[in-house]
Structures are given as C-alpha cells and as structure tokens.
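Format notes (please read before filing issues)

Several people have asked whether sequences and structure tokens are stored in separate files. They are not. Every record keeps both together, in the order shown below: the sequence lines, then the token lines. Line labels are part of the format and must not be stripped during preprocessing.
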Amino acid sequence: MRLINSPLLLRVLLALGMTSWVGAQNVGMAELELVGSELVEGPLTEIFAQHTAEFGIKLDATFRGSYSGILALKSDVADIAFLVENPLGDDLPDSWVSLPLGHLAAFVIAPRELTLDQLTFEDLTQIFGADSAVATTSWGDFGADGRWASVPISAHITTPAEGIAYEIFRHRVLPSPRLKVSVREFDSLESTREALQADEVGIAVVPWWEESDEHFKALLIGSAGGEVAFGP
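Then the structure lines:
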C-alpha cells in the first residue's frame, strides 16, 4: 500500500515564511529556527545540522507537531517548518511557499500464495485493533478461499525503530492507536520478515517491501468496502 491520495499516505511539506527568511539572509543570518512534526525529527535534524554547519549557521530545531509548527511560523518564531500534512488545510499566508518533499508510506504484506489481494481499514482493525470486538480472525473471514479459508491470521508490525509505518498505521487506520496484545512487534524489517516466514500464514505492517519478493506480496488497501483499493 503506497500510492498518492491513499488515506494511509502522509504528505511531508516544507512551509517557508519568505519575508522573514529573505530579510534574515540579507543581514547575514547567524541562526536558523526550524520547527515541525516529531515524525520527521530524527533524519531532518541530522541532515540540517550537517549542512548548516558548513555555512556557519546555528541550527535551533524544535519538533512538537505540525500544528505547533504552523503557529510558530505565523508568529514569526520560526523560519522553516516541516509538516506532515497541513493541519490547517489551505489556510496559509500568500507570502509562504509550500513544497512537497516526499510521501510517508506503510505496506501491508501477506503470503504471496494467499487467495486474497485486498483488505479495508475495517478488516485491518479487526485483525490488529485492540478495540475490535473480534478476538481472533481467519483468512476466510475476509474472503480467502481454498485451504486459506480456515487458516487463523497472526499479526505482526515493525516498530518505529525501523521507520514510521508503525505510527501511520496506528493513527491513520485504526480507530484508536491501541494494538491487540496478540500483535507481535519487531524492531527491524528483517526480524519481521523472519517471523512471517516462520509462521507462513501471517500479515504484517512494514515501512518498506520489495515488490519482487517471492514469498510475500503487498495487499491492496481500501478505506471502506466498495471503495477503490490502492497498492504500490
């Protein structure tokens, strides 16, 4: 599942207050105030620290969320904000420039031989969500046939140690971010894959997957029954 406009896809934006930025450049800015979403704090802080040091600019970075980032820009407290989706829609000052930098994605993968190619948010909630009224599920509950119809589903997920697919899934797909106690969590993509290969019937949420993998496939995901299901 990785497609533009899919509800699971987050849009990373750079919002730049042009007036304050240009003015600072003209007088030889010594410090850059950067704010934004905590979801992108790790990689952005490291990258900006390296490049600002090259130009003799002191970096002051604070990541407290996209909404607070917008407020910091509006109050001229910050120069640049990195946002995961724009929390205020299109309500941005005309003097600002908003640039899409990339897309954050979550993949839902399952055995390649599974006689099922797509699921919905509701299906995933039944499999992963702690608030689901369904304690256990089998592949037949979601339309798989043949030998898969009676096979119980084991659920796996890769934690934030490997990427933010974990947070995307919990906060954008599930009604509440709590996972069932039966969901197995792994700190790396490799360990998630090993667990899937060991039980041979599981499903997993991961930050990345090779389409050419001979053992597992990425499922198409629809926001609701009857809606278009998107895939890689």
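For reference, the curators noted about this record: Confidence is low (pLDDT under 50) at residues 1-15, 17-27. Residues 41-54 form the longest helix (14 residues).
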